[in-house]
Here is the input.
Amino acid sequence: REREPGRERRKRGSLVAEAGQPDPSVPLSGVSCSGCGAELHCRDSAAPGFMPAEKFRSLSGGLDGAEGLRGAVCQRCWMLAHYGRALRLELPAEQHRLVVSAALRRPPRHGRGPLLLYLLDVLELPDPVLPQLPALLGPDVPAAGLLVVGNKVDLLPADSPGHLGRLRQRMAEACAQAGLRRAPLVDIRLVSAKTGFGMEGLVSRLQRSWKCAGDVYLLGATNSGKSTLFNTLLRSDYCKSRAPDIIDRATVSSWPGTTLNLLKFPIINPTCDRIFRRQERLKGEAAKTEDQLSSEEKKLLNKLKKEGYLVGEVGRTFERQKPSTVVDFDPDMLSYSIDEDPKPASKKCERREEFTYNEVKDARWCYDTPGIVKENCVLNLLTDKEVKLVLPTTAIVPRTFILKPGMVLFLAALGRVDYLEGEKSAWFSVVASNLLPVHVTSLSNADAIYKKHAGHELLRVPMGGEERMKEFPPLVPQDITLKGIGTTEAVADIKLSSAGWVAVTAHREEKLLLRAYTPQGTTLVVREPPLLPYISTVRGSRIPGSAAYRTKKPPSLVENLKPTGRR
Here is the structure.
């Protein structure tokens, strides 16, 4: 192998598995990781909350003891945040459920049960965990209300006017099918926790309907965006004004199951005066044009517009003036290079700001719970690098192809759709991460293409060549029969587990026989009606000599901001 550059060698050295050494003789700290909520310790490197023994001792060995660990993060959170790399932990799916279930069964505080804020990824509809919610709650959970929030709407292009209303209707249908009848359904909202779209409306809805009546629990499947929502609410008008300075932000990563225990922040009491001041701020911001934004605000807005189709802004009405510069936790203290000796703990920020007793004695709290693991999901089969390619993080650009009978479409090596029988050509629109390749070939060549290129660059995911594919489950087929409803409206989506979906559009009354494949042990869903029925119209002209159309990216929409030039 060619010699690696020094910088790469150092990087590899700092990532070596889980580089720090455990020490089973050291007691547990009693202090939670500020990124995932797991208790910090150095006893077992495979358990949540692990920190290398030398680091653990350097932070907890001072006069303040365990207090020196406050604000620190475990090795797993550090790897996720700085390298996008998830360490393998021994945390069974059932343990996630036990943590969530036990939290929900706490005796009601303030004489009222909690509000359950269930977050689902709109790309995953029908949500695989939603039907499990009634069993998770059980008859002994005193839930006072349920608010369902569809996240990641910024990733989906508008296929027609009113597409958000259609998405909301699909969510309502999913709730009804899941049998969510025990907890009263307060509302259904659409947001992007990442770009801020819909977040001010969600805060207003929570303050208007729930006020400060009880605690709030964020629930949802792994990777639905709960930690991002938690972080966005933390810097909004929903939490106490001092909370962002005291509460550490949850670790956000594409790796499923990031939050391992309960993180929380105190909810602000929405008094009449606060509601009035908040509404005045929102009115003032809605009257602005892009020209009136500061250069920093324009820079952020342009960045978000590149990343999502729907963009909003999350502001703060009750920001507290900081008396002095806040010194963040020193990240150098969490570098786990095996080539370096442990550094002495910094004393610059020993005294962290804390809530006073009076501030929290009657507080209502917003809790971020561990994500409920999705079973039969393709993400469970992938490495961290592969997950980052599969999960979309920027606006999805649909890719449309026109196929004749006898043609095959591959979505990486994670899904395949064969057009077996039909009288005419049909349109197949891929809605998936822009980083996943799509390959079209003939039915006679498809098996040879998969055998030769699965694990390699042409199909890209999985990656790792023949050795990787030896351990990867084979693709298994499912036959599908569809009848077209018109050349501009898809009849169904073929959802290839969590890798994405293919919307099928065919001539009216045209019968199609398809065969779709996903890896063994994963779920293939035929979604009728489709989520974006007019997605095949979001395309450019056809590429000569090809089955593909040129892609077309619709413009972004900014919420509550007047276009430039309007007053």
